[in-house]
Known about the structure:
There is one protein chain. This protein is an alpha+beta fold. It has one domain. It is 66% helix and 11% strand. It is built from 5 helices and 4 strands; from the N terminus they run H-E-H-H-E-E-H-H-E. It is globular and about 50 Å long.
Amino acid sequence: MFLTEVRILSELQFSNTHKESYFDGKLHQYVGYLILFLLMVVLTFGLAYPWAITMMLKWKTRHTVIEGKRLQFKGTGIGLFGNYIKWWLLTIVTLGIYLFWLIISVNKWKAKHTVFDQ
């Protein structure tokens, strides 16, 4: 009985320790996306910023694996655009004080739209 329990526990422990976390993005991909990001933002005078951000987040999560599970970002540019306007209005109305909360709000939005790929 005791030996069976030890064997089961060691098998469970072994199976849980071999899940890897890694990032498999390549430099040339990142540079390409960064150039596209900059072009989107500059050519639209910042209006396409939410779409550019979601493009970069999708690339980053698509190449991130946590404990053997690949991440996926499900946010959209239009979904971020509404928040983008709201957050900047709050920043202007509060004379910049909202910037402290803006960082937290952006990270909450990112986390809300990041899931494990199926």
